[in-house]
Amino acid sequence: SLFNYYLFMTFISVFTTMTNPDERNDPWQEALDCYNKISDNNVVTVGEDWPLEFDWGIFNKVYQRGFDKCDSKWVMRMDLDYFIHEDDIEKIKFYLKKYNDEPGIVLPQYQFFTHDRYQIKTKLCLLLNKERFPDIKLNGGTDKMLATLDGKLLTYNNVPQIRVPIWQYDSMFRTKEIIKNDRARFARAWFRTFNHYGDRGGDKPDEAFDAWFLMIQERYKKHVFKMDIDKHPVFIKNKLKKVSSDQFGYDAFGLKNNTKFEYFNLFSELKKKYF
Question: I need a labelling partner for 109 at 20 to 30 A (CA). Which of 76, 85, 101, 141 fits?
Fold first, then answer.
């Protein structure tokens, strides 16, 4: 019965998407080790059947399937390059109890291209109260995968935010070849759905890579916070120390030693970090 379902729900579970993670050099084993420390039951994985060519509507379908498969009071949505620091896991569970009547909780995202620098890229509602708000949908934002309730996007404007960061390692372990093919594939999906490429360059690997790298150059200038490698989450630390020279995270394909960082952005970055 529905009563028994809610009676035996676990407290928190994690779902993530995983498609050919070895081919794409995703840190999938490290991520699952992290998620298993957070989750009170098995981590839910979806997206194994993600096709090579797709349209943008797949995001909502796959993410919603992940949310629906979780049988817990709280659900955490994680991309496979998202990590939580081991010291913050108990903090998360404290806040879940504190905000038990809220539909979601927002966390800041620390975005890394190289292990020694980051910026606060965004703030995301990744903790979702499924027990009290089972009608939450993952269909908001440009990518149609952000959490909404009654058609409204869940953001720091309408749900609590906490100072427990998501550590994101964007393309850190991928080679140029992997990134080129991946970005072209996603550019084709964008065109298929919206009938333009936007800032994604084009459908060819080199075009898509060049557009991506231009975006990376602009973002990397804002990575004004520094980080010691030993302060990263324990789950990913060893992998970071073994990044090879052909992988993006080694020196961001040459940007590490050739970027003038925009420290005038420090105030706005501090504001995002602490407020």
Answer: 101
